[in-house]
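Why show two proteins at once? Because comparison is the fastest way to build intuition. When a single record is shown, students tend to memorize it. When two are placed side by side, the eye starts asking what differs. So, the first record is below.
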Amino acid sequence: TSTTHAGRAVADFHPQFTGLIDAEFSTFDLHEAVEKTDIIFCALPHGKSAAIVVPLLEAGAKVIDLSADFRLKEAGLYPQWYNQEHPSPHFLPEAVYGLPELKREQISKARLIANPGCYPTASILALAPLAKAKLVDWKSVVLDAKSGVSGAGRSLKQAFHFPECTENFKAYKVPNHQHIPEIEQELGILAGSRPCLSFTPHLVPMVRGILITAYVRLTKELTEPDLWELYEHFYEGESFIRLLKPPRLPETRFVMGTNFCDLSLRYDQRTGRVIVFSAIDNLVKGASGQAVQNMNIICNLPEEQGLKHVAPLP
């Protein structure tokens, strides 16, 4: 559905689907949506999604929401991080955070999925094994994050104008990026305590991709082989997690257009830090691909269905 393109062919606005999809955009009708669909994906901006999602739920729909409106469990965090009160806080406890590698069982039974943000997906997957094992000194954690420009969406803004972005590399929203509480919330659930970490995002002059470099001190002395064993056990059987052993390191080009998250790590004996690397496509595993992965789980379909793509390398 679309408020601006109703009655026009989808392929007119997404030409890559020419000859593949003959659907047209339609205006949104709540009752028609509930009657004709098994699951509804809601891709409205943050702050506008809840007004549609709540009536859909009340009408009996299952919803996968790609906004941040249902990701945080504490309603009191929304004024601080999103500059508004949450309109429907009573739905927050019900929403399941849609990171399949951590919440698969809850997702399968849910009617409201809060699809994770792109930075949180890459960050949480990077540190989840360490958090679950309660090995992290949270005061030491620094997440150095880089993203392509598409993470800002399609709206025209001066900061994302081509002459402003190209041949440039900059940090932004320091130290109050809105994804920080989401990352801390989910890692805290794993760790059994509320972490407080440093997160600095950067804008890279490329279209898509996220690379996270996480710096961590441990509460227990481990060797690098010990750490690899921990990660291999934690992510055993996960279709979209690829662990890259030395000398390989994640690169955004290897996950572009895919639903994979590539992870690797190193133990720096000189500084006593573990360095964890995580790469995803912010538009796929960081957004729509993960939403489809969640849909597959809810519908009891093969989790990889429609998502087994490889990066289009030269």
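Second record. Ask yourself what differs from the first in the token line.
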Amino acid sequence: MTEPVPLSGTSFLAESDLDYRALRREHGAVVPVVLDGGVPAWLVIDYQELHQVTGDPVLFSRDFALWNQWQSLPDDWPLLPMILRQFPPDPGAGGRHIIERKAALGSSLDGVDLFRLRRDTEYFADELINAVCASGKADLVTDYAKLLPMRVLAVLFGFPEEDGPALVAALNDMVDGNERAAAGMRHLAAATAGLVAAQRRRPGDGLVGRMLAAGTGFTDEHVMHDLLEIAAAAHQPVADWISHSLRLMLTDDRFAASLFGGRNSVAEAMNEVLWEEAPVQIVSGRWAARDTLLAERHIRAGDLLLLGFQAANNDPYVRTHQSAPTGGNHAHFAFGHGEHRCPFAAQEMAEVMAGTAIEVVLDRLPDIDLAVPAESLTRRPSPWLRGLTSLPVVFTPSPALRSS
């Protein structure tokens, strides 16, 4: 038995693609890993095996009540919010209850007006560009991308506009798994519970109102957790999709035309990022419902399996020519696979927010250029979400737009 790989530190940062190739050579398709605090897990990194795990929700369940490590977890374990970023289990209800809730959530998201979502995204994007446009320089991560998605989602949920910045900060703490992660999760939970309670007292016709009126018998707590799921699954990944797409367009000649008035390659750049720089790099998770074999690994009942989306996207048996353009190929794992994949409506929403955010930058800052050498850009120290720490740019100063 090979030694488990620590899923932390520098080995999963900027050169993580090289690390995955090394992991395949040493461990094969399923890698024994250890999380912070000595918590064991399995990391599935090959396309075929990941397809198998995500396609069998009975054997590889999302019910974390099955986890065989509960007794060994400290109460303040910082990764718990990331590991449990999903629907909570309902004892006795079984996996079908989760599927029913997923369907109800998908139906509620289907009612989102994408034209209004684009308008709201443009409004907040313009507000953020207004804050930096006169200076001639900005960091498109800290000044823009990581501030935008949750601002839009907060309005979609029904939060007052002024609550947005605090919600953004809480989410960033949670997904980074730092010492403020638990406090961030508590803030999000309390704010969302208050919102759901207010909507229950005075029902509206927005997203939360549709979720409460779905007629599925789900409680306010269910709706609260579903909103947290949307927020956690959308905010930082969309922010990273925005920043990585802009980085690609600023550094790769194939997409440079988009910086000078063209728009045909914006969608191509965004799809390239989903293959090469998937914002959600590793996801928890699945728990084995019984003892089983996976790629000749003995998986015990209750073992945690982590889904290596980025690794699978670059599986050499699937991407035999990894330097070739991805074009219109959408067979990546960026949105998951199987019954628990990201709902189609949510994918559309993410694409609208990310695409609109990129277009606002190109419209407002047409001569934008990278302010540092491309090789100096660094990524956050997280194995979970793959995002830049900064994206410094320069441009010709311009006046702020007036609010309409």
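One difference worth noting in the second protein: Residues 220-251 form the longest helix (32 residues).
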